[in-house]
Design a protein that fits this description.
Blueprint: H1 19-58, H2 66-75, H3 90-125, H4 137-151, H5 161-181, E1 182-183, E2 186-187, H6 189-212, H7 217-227, H8 240-255, H9 257-264, H10 267-272, H11 277-299, H12 305-317, H13 321-345, H14 354-372
Antiparallel strand pairs: 1-2
Helix pairs in contact: 1-3, 1-13, 3-8, 3-11, 3-12, 3-13, 4-5, 4-6, 4-7, 4-11, 5-6, 5-11, 8-11, 12-13, 12-14, 13-14
Length: about 375
Amino acid sequence: MKVGHFTAIKETGERIETSQTRKIEGSEREKSKHQSRFKRLLFILTLGLILSITFSVMLGPVPISMLTVWKIVASQLPFVGDTVPVNWSLAQQNIIWELRFPRALLGGIVGAGLAVAGVGIQALVRNSLADPYILGVSSGASVGATLVILFGALQFFGQYALSLAAFLGAFLSVVFVYTFARVGGQISTIRLLLAGIAISMILGAVTNVIVLSAPEEEGIRGALYWMMGSLAGANWTILPIPAIAVVVVFVFLLYQSRTLNLILMGEDTAATLGINVGAFRKVLIVVISLLTGVLVAVSGAIGFVGLMVPHMIRLLVGSEHRKVLPISALFGAVFMIWADIVARLVVAPEELPIGVVTALCGGPFFIWLLRRSSYTFGGRS
């Protein structure tokens, strides 16, 4: 080892620059830059989320002013609602409060949830190409959801049938992936990814068979449209379930951010530092399955967000999960709301499937960002 690695200060107090000191200083500067960027992004994206919700509610076949939008929202709030003077029509109130506002909120919830699920899965398999689709989670949820939509399965659960079926499909798909990837009591990342891709393709074929077996042509069209993603079914009744699922999983992953960071450094390293990697993996798989199943049930299978958003955020703030998780959630929410705005307006009065918009809008920007920045995942370039 070079002597310069041990001596950074001369006896006279004069500072000596070595490759080691330059590396340490470079790392500190990088951390400081990421910390500063994290604070700016947190403020900008929080403000951006409020503005995005506002524009999402304002824009449409019947444009409504920003002031009227927030007056109507304020009039629905307890304690302050009675103090707001009513100077809008009943039609405007129905459009804002019954249609557009819950749709904007659902877009934010789904976008945040998909981004958080992507962060969790990428940390789980230590691969930046992983997302809920790669491990077959979305495909499994789609199988359960299409059975409910087209054949009325699990109808005795009422309004919760779709969410429950999607969760069961997502959970079973991950159990299959986990079982097939486990050989000799060990699970390698490569084997897990390949098993996920195989299960995803099989379940995708099963979903196509279910859709083509639908008794009515209109049902097939509706199911295919739903599979490409839509927020058209948003209402106040369905909002609590995905909102609670997203908050619970976000808090869990944020609480486990140190464990996620250690797993990125390698399973052996994490085990040496006291982490039960096998047990944590099982818990993480169940948690991500629950979240993905609930999101697929309310919005269809919207791809690309879980893959793209964590990538972008790691480019901006590094791989520390305490920063990646909140910024990813905010960015995913803003991105999904604007994707929904484009889906509603670009071919109005018809709507584009939102999955088409997320791929066409986010893909080029992602490629541009990838080419102009250096990228690291878990400390590896």
